[in-house]
Amino acid sequence: MTGFDKDNMNNDIDHVLVSEEQLRERIAEMGAMLSEEYKDKNPILVCILRGAVHFFSDLSRHMTCRAQLDFMSISSYGDELKTSGIVRIAKDMDTSITGRHVLIIEDIMDSGHTLKHLKKVLMAREPASLKICCLLDKPSRRECDIAPDYTGFVIPNEFVLGYGLDCENYYRNLPYVGVLKPELYK
Ligand code: IMP
Ligand code: MG
């Protein structure tokens, strides 16, 4: 990346797509809904690193049901803007999910390849249930037959950053979801 503002990353953002206030409101709403859904189910909430870090942290603290938290790190081969569909588990979770209710918490569903693969891997471990909760969904980009069970926001086909989402591992610490200035892409 060249042409970025080295002192303030907010200046690299063309426009805000989901504001801090919208995130706060929607995540509180989702947390309340999931608390109902998972009450008495003793779920395992699985954070998909690194993109889901803030969403996971905020959402899980809005869930009042008894739950265990775990973490996985997955990398998809391909470049920043397009996944290849080949996925590698870089860090597996530590908890056994056999017979348990599992909720995967992810930043975004784009082509769907990453989550489709992950779902297949985790289903082989025979959980009692396995659902996917994504902060963002870009259905117009889908290349597989999969959809999140729970979605925060449906967004248009734009490359977004912030609130965990990155470009070359930067911008994850922006408190909102935004779109990069077009001149910074290449
Ligand atoms: P998929 O396999 O194409 O669904 O892509 C999933 C992964 O690609 C996500 O977990 C993100 O890490 C990344 N990704 C997809 N779209 C975006 C975006 O707009 N901004 C940042 N990362 C993205
Ligand atoms: Mg990711």
Strand segment tally = 9
- Helix share, percent: 10-25%
Assess the beta-strand content as a share of residues.
25-35%
CATH architecture: 3-Layer(aba) Sandwich
Number of helices, where a helix is a run of at least 4 consecutive DSSP H or I residues = 3
List low-confidence stretches: none
Level-1 CATH class name:
Alpha Beta
Rounded to an integer in angstroms, the radius of gyration calculated over CA atoms is 16 Å
Principal-axes shape call: globular
The H-and-E topology, N to C, reads as EHEHEEEHEEEE
**Largest sheet at a glance?**
6 strands, mixed
Name the strands of the widest sheet in spatial order. Answer: 4-3-2-5-6-7
**Category by helix and strand content:** alpha/beta
* N- and C-termini, Cα separation: 6 Å
CATH topology: Rossmann fold
Notable traits:
186 residues; alpha/beta; Rossmann fold; 6-stranded mixed β-sheet; 3-stranded antiparallel β-sheet; 3 helices; 20% helix; globular; binds inosinic acid; binds magnesium ion
Secondary-structure map with pairings?
Layout: E1 13-18, H1 20-37, E2 44-49, H2 53-60, E3 68-79, E4 82-91, E5 101-109, H3 113-123, E6 129-137, E7 150-154, E8 160-161, E9 177-180
Parallel strand pairs: 2-3, 2-5, 5-6, 6-7
Antiparallel strand pairs: 1-9, 3-4, 8-9
Helix pairs in contact: 1-2
Provide a descriptive summary of the structure in words.
The chain is an alpha/beta fold. It has one domain (21-155): Rossmann fold. The chain contains 3 helices and 9 strands. It has helices at residues 20-37, 53-60, 113-123; strands at 13-18, 44-49, 68-79, 82-91, 101-109, 129-137, 150-154, 160-161, 177-180. A 6-stranded mixed beta sheet has the order 4-3-2-5-6-7. Helix 1 crosses helix 2 (53-60). The structure holds inosinic acid and magnesium ion. Magnesium ion (MG) binds at residues 51, 107. Magnesium ion binds at residues 51, 107.
